Amino acid sequence: MPDLDWQRVWARRGAAARTLWPAHALMGAALGLRRMLWAAGLWRPWRAPVPVVVVGNVVAGGAGKTPTTIALVHHLRARGRTPGVVARGHGGDAAAPHLVADDPDPARCGDEPVLVAQATGAPVAVAPNRPCAVRALLQRHPRVDIVVSDDGLQHWALAADLALVLFDARDVGNGWLLPAGPLREPWPLRRTPAPTVWVLRTEPPGRPPAAHPYPEFSARRQLADWADDGRERRPLTEWASGRYPAPGALAGIARPQAFFDALRAAGVPLAAARPLRDHAPAAELRQVLQAAARAGGPRDWLCTEKDAVKLRGTPLPEGVRVWAVPLTLALPPAFTAALDAWLDARAPERGTAL
């Protein structure tokens, strides 16, 4: 079913979702077996010598994990901490642990780790195996006193002390597991033992949210009102007012339409909108720009920061400029106060399995 609009399918228990319900049941059985084997001690998580905070979600697709990670690192630094970041490195080809600072190429590290490193200046390590990434990070940066894992909620091999579970307007969709629904695992979490779990909503829920027993906070996530092409910062109002011709927009993220809708909501008239697959490589992004240039399309193109890190320094069609529009996230005071109290109260050696 390659042409299905999965977000639409996952929003309700309609005919397409019901057709896939047997796969939901199979996924649930597999996850139940996994939980049983971990609870029996067949596998054990690795505990880092410093606190580990995992920023993740139970719903497939972007919910703001990377902007939340960036905001969290900024807060921890302001509080006097020395945070480091680990990530899977989706879109990159690094199999062994790799420090982004050694080779900040998105094709090697993945786009999101490079963005986090650029936005925060914090050391970032990538590896499919999160414990290996943490070890490499701490070996190179022994002063790091807290680790933030960008994604990794389903990576149980790394013991977490605090799990921030993010939700956007979709909440849990139809409440079914992949592929019948958007859930990567049942909600609320069914794990023993489990870390401290908090819910952070990056958008108001578009439906009555599913019940859960965890503390909940609401953050404010929005597009910046400006774009940057590496040489100039331009307010979005310059396009909205018609001072410059209508730009195009491209997005290689989990939900490209959300980016396009946000630009239009800001008053930007889009001459073209080109969605690409999540973590689309630079070559695919350039193909879109080259095809548009040959067809006499827009000369200005707006994109996400995640796309921009892959295009910076690469050859673009003559006269084409690519502008990154940041997605900002403001952590609510109630959340930062709770986080500060949690950090003050806990001992770093007491990590638990996710």
From TrEMBL:
NCBIfam families registered for this protein in UniProt: lpxK
Superkingdom of the source species: Bacteria
Leading EC class: transferase
EC identifiers of the protein: 2.7.1.130
Entry GO terms, CC: plasma membrane
GO molecular function: ATP binding; lipid-A 4'-kinase activity
Recorded metabolic or biological pathway in which this protein acts: Glycolipid biosynthesis; lipid IV(A) biosynthesis; lipid IV(A) from (3R)-3-hydroxytetradecanoyl-[acyl-carrier-protein] and UDP-N-acetyl-alpha-D-glucosamine: step 6/6
Residues the record lists as binding ATP: 59-66
A Pfam family annotated for this UniProt entry: LpxK
Reaction equations catalysed: a lipid A disaccharide + ATP = a lipid IVA + ADP + H(+)
HAMAP family listed in its UniProt record: LpxK (MF_00409)
Family statement drawn from the similarity comment of this UniProt entry: Belongs to the LpxK family.
Name under which the protein is recorded: Tetraacyldisaccharide 4'-kinase
UniProt keyword annotations, A-Z: ATP-binding, Kinase, Lipid A biosynthesis, Lipid biosynthesis, Lipid metabolism, Nucleotide-binding, Transferase
Keyword Lipid metabolism set for record: yes
GO BP terms: lipid A biosynthetic process; lipopolysaccharide core region biosynthetic process
Function, in words: Transfers the gamma-phosphate of ATP to the 4'-position of a tetraacyldisaccharide 1-phosphate intermediate (termed DS-1-P) to form tetraacyldisaccharide 1,4'-bis-phosphate (lipid IVA).
